[in-house]
Amino acid sequence: MPEVTVPLGRKSGLPAGEHYEIELRDLHKSYGDNEVLKGIDLDIALGEVVVILGPSGSGKSTMLRCINMLETPTSGEIRVRGQVVDSRPANLMALRREVGMVFQQFNLFPNMTVLENVAAGPRYVRGMSRADSEARAQQLLTRVGIVGKDDVRPTRLSGGQQQRVAIARALALEPRVVLFDEPTSALDPELRGEVLDTMKSLASQGTTMAVVTHEMSFARHVASRVIFIDGGVIVEEGDPAQVLERPKSARLRQFLNKLEWEND
Amino acid sequence: MNGGYQFDFSAVLARYPLFFEAALLTLEILAIATVASLVIGLFAGIGLTSERWYVRGPVRAYVDLFRLTPLLVQIVTIFFLLPIVGITVNALVSGIIALSLNYAAFYAEIFKAGITSIDRGQWEASRAMGMKDSTALRRVILPQAIRRMLPPVGNMLVSLTKDTSLVSVIGVAELMSVSQTLGASTFRNLESLLVVTVFYLAINIPLSALVSYLHKKQVVNA
Ligand SMILES: Nc1ncnc2c1ncn2[C@@H]1O[C@H](COP(=O)(O)OP(=O)(O)OP(=O)(O)O)[C@@H](O)[C@H]1O
Ligand SMILES: [Mg+2]
């Protein structure tokens, strides 16, 4: 790999000897002839909330899914706390315990109750006892505001509740970073607020997050950094005020105008 | 208008204990072959979903060999083949092996269909939390897949009850075989066949009712 380059938008350097939570170096991903990611460099520091914006098909999900190796990059390097990630199973499992993920479609397990969903990680990945894993699950469900639903099947809950259960499930393995791929896009507008509030409270507790979303108010008020991806490269990045209020590139200006127009 | 044939069940019914013995053997074949074929079918079905060609290929070859050739041919072939490859078992065991291998091939397809019908997102959520694929399969995918597979598996059970009659050709004394022997010795073949028909119905009507129940339950819960 080439020398590590200092990325553009970093606000402050790391203390000596510290590692970034996540580092992506010259990440490429192709599906056949279709090169979706064309060299992504990105560092995410402890406690950062990075919001990723970009038009449909620009590679946002692909990038996020490369971070926890749901997609195998064609080339480039991923480090989690300085540790290079490769696709050997043991290494992969270790990585994924450090990185939680929340999906657009929730992907809760319908064969388990709400409590079992949240306990599944500790129980089946960490080998924790049923009692311990469920005690932890209960705490997490309280934290995301889902109370009294332990023995209910997740499909009986509203979309907003399901997504909050999914967030609790992602937190159950105490990941260092949580990835969100359009967590509110499958929800009716009136249910988005509760999920965004949950995410906001995670952010305020110092959870490191990478969030693909079109929720501008979340980007504006919660993000510590905003990244704009188009055509498989990072076109712009910086703090929200700068990127959202004073976009440099025509592409980002166009994208933001279109979003505003759609939201009205 | 019965063509002059006079039904007389007395000779056949006089030997009723033989029918019950044979029915027990039929049930034994049914039970063992069901368990064996489901177990083999589970692993073969998982094999069919493997991304590795050297796993999938041989399993596919086995499944197609048994799915696309007549069960009757398999029963007789296995009966003659086993001793040649140094496996000496009686006709009963040989018949159970043939039935199990045949039904496992169909169960493999059912398991495969069940596994692949589960939304990709379930795999992704499992993998994303660091589950091994084997854990995801056991804790997340199979419990959902098996629910969907219950009706087709029930249909296979009904079908297996009937197919146990085929092992009569290698001399296993199950219902069909006993009906033939008794029919021949009493000269009441038809009566004897009608009696075993009742036995097959007695096994399969409850099984079939169970299948309908599972179907209904699935529709309700869908
Ligand atoms: N498994 C796949 N196989 C082939 N092509 C894929 C696959 N996944 C994604 N792509 C392609 O990669 C490109 C980027 O997809 P990606 O899902 O990362 O975009 P996105 O920025 O998340 O878009 P959206 O806003 O619509 O979710 C698209 O052209 C898509 O068709
Ligand atoms: Mg996407």
UniProtKB/TrEMBL annotation, chain A:
Q: Which InterPro entries match?
A: AAA+_ATPase, ABC_ATPase_HisP-typ, ABC_transporter-like_ATP-bd, ABC_transporter-like_CS, MetN_ABC_transporter-like, P-loop_NTPase
Q: Which coarse location class applies to the principal site listed for this UniProt protein?
A: membrane
Which keywords fit this entry according to its UniProt record? ATP-binding, Cell membrane, Membrane, Nucleotide-binding, Transport
One GO cellular component assignment for this chain's record is: plasma membrane
Pfam families membership: ABC_tran
The molecular function terms of the Gene Ontology recorded here are: ATP binding; ATP hydrolysis activity; ATPase-coupled polar amino acid-transporter activity
The protein's annotated catalytic reaction(s) are: a polar amino acid(out) + ATP + H2O = a polar amino acid(in) + ADP + phosphate + H(+)
The record's annotation in PROSITE patterns points to: ABC_TRANSPORTER_1, ABC_TRANSPORTER_2
| Documented EC number(s) | 7.4.2.1
Q: How does it sit in the membrane?
A: Peripheral membrane protein
The UniProt record lists the ABC transporter domain at: 22-256
Q: Where in the cell is it found?
A: Cell membrane
**Top-level taxon:** Bacteria
Q: Which CDD domains match?
A: ABC_HisP_GlnQ
The record's section on PANTHER family has: AMINO ACID IMPORT ATP-BINDING PROTEIN (PTHR43166), L-CYSTINE IMPORT ATP-BINDING PROTEIN TCYN (PTHR43166:SF35)
| Protein name listed in UniProt | ABC-type polar-amino-acid transporter
**What is the species listed in this Swiss-Prot or TrEMBL entry?**
Amnibacterium flavum
TrEMBL record, chain B:
Please state where this protein is localized.
Cell membrane
Q: How does it sit in the membrane?
A: Multi-pass membrane protein
InterPro entries xrefs: AA_ABC_transptr_permease_3TM (IPR010065), ArtM/GltK/GlnP/TcyL/YhdX-like (IPR043429), MetI-like (IPR000515), MetI-like_sf (IPR035906)
ABC transmembrane type-1 domain: which residues?
23-211
Q: Which GO terms describe its biological process?
A: amino acid transport
The record, for CDD domains, names:
TM_PBP2 (cd06261)
Question: Which PROSITE patterns does the record match to this protein?
Answer: ABC_TM1
Signal sequence span per UniProt? none
Q: Any keyword Transport?
A: yes
**What GO molecular function annotation could you give as one example from this UniProt entry?**
transmembrane transporter activity
Record field: transmembrane = 22-44, 193-214
Query: Cellular component GO terms, alphabetically?
Result: ATP-binding cassette (ABC) transporter complex
Alphabetized UniProt keyword annotations: Amino-acid transport, Cell membrane, Membrane, Transmembrane, Transmembrane helix, Transport
To which protein family does this belong? Answer: Belongs to the binding-protein-dependent transport system permease family. HisMQ subfamily.
Question: What's the protein called, per UniProt?
Answer: Nickel transporter
Q: Which organism is it from?
A: Amnibacterium flavum
